[in-house]
Design brief:
- There is one protein chain.
- Helices cover 32% and strands 20% of the residues.
- The chain has a 7-stranded mixed β-sheet with strand order 3-2-1-4-9-6-10, sandwiched between helices.
- The longest helix is centred in the C-terminal third of the chain and has 14 residues, at 231-244.
- By secondary structure, it is an alpha/beta fold.
- It has helices spanning 13-24, 42-50, 67-77, 96-102, 122-128, 150-153, 175-180, 194-205, 231-244; strands spanning 3-9, 32-37, 56-59, 82-87, 90-92, 108-111, 113-117, 140-141, 170-174, 208-211, 217-221.
- The two termini are 21 Å apart.
- The chain has a single domain, classed as Alpha-Beta Complex (Spore Coat Polysaccharide Biosynthesis Protein SpsA, Chain A), CATH 3.90.550.10.
Length: 257
Amino acid sequence: MKSSLIITTYNWSEALDLVLRSLTKQSIFPDEIIIADDGSRAETRTLITDFKHPLKHIWHEDTGFRKANILNKAVASATGDYIIQIDGDCIMHPNFVADHLNSVKKGCYLYGSRVNIQEYYLPKLFKKKQITFNFFSKGIKKRTRAIYLPILGKLYKTSNVFSKKYRGCNTSYFKSDFISVNGYDEDFVGWGREDSELAIRFHNFGLKSRRLRYQGIVFHIYHKEKSKDRLEQNDAIEKMTINNKRIKTDRGISQYL
């Protein structure tokens, strides 16, 4: 099974640099790496060009927050059967890719844990270019999520219902399942609900979910909250999906296939 790691980013090359450094330390390397770029400037392109491993750079013009759009384009371009998806501000545990690939199961999508790196620690983080963390590390909160014990993770079983613990910054799924629901709904513009709405449609399609606890860990670099001026409209789309048990979106990945 061929895997594609998709990393979303937007104009924060300093954070993306640490994510890519953590990629070089993975115990299992993905077959393909795709940067889903929502319109970053030249600094990001330079970082990607200089990276020592081949990266596929999917970019579109910056006309506002269009994460759903760029992710559909990135998945459409992916040659992997299985997609692992993270954000460009999430440093990966060395076994992150391995944990996702070792947990793959037909008819199921996965989501992992996110440990938050605190704001006060950012100057030291970027100065040291730190990519290694554990339960005792300085600068993190919700540190129990940093405990790496895959044997305990086996206690977490599949579920038929959507979990509010789901985060699109740490998830994986079969490309074929993504295409079956027509991917992200591009009616989502601005921050909010595009990831959870996709997961709800996965369940409507008949997929189960499994949480990767004590494994599949990312360390999320603090940033200021993005504008929520479209949240009301995005909430309405998600509620429509729930109420109508909607599976496929009209404006999705099909336009790029």
